[in-house]
Amino acid sequence: MSDEPPTPPATLPTEIVNTLNESDPERLRDVASYAEALAEHKEREARLEESADQDEVEQRPDVLPDDVPAKATITIKEINDNRYYYWQWREGDTVTSKYKGPVNPDD
């Protein structure tokens, strides 16, 4: 091991480098552990989001009614033991649905 301190990555902001340089070894190990766990968490979230986006794209048909936005997906709702397709999308904090048709049991 070198007697010189390690060189921080050029992408690390100066204020973070300064804070780390002023920290004791125990705090540095805590930061390293937390940073690794946070990186894994964010990578997992990104993979899940990417997977969900792909699922939505696969469910989205080529032709949408004029009053249904492109971001809408098809969902199935069961009402009185009957299943129906609905277009569904989010408008701010509200989820909006529009009837599409009955679910064909042969599909």
From TrEMBL:
Residues 40-50 have a biased composition (Basic and acidic residues). Residues 1-26, 40-68 are annotated as: Disordered. InterPro entries: DUF6788. Residues 1-11 have a biased composition (Pro residues). Residues 57-106 form the DUF6788 domain. This is DUF6788 domain-containing protein.
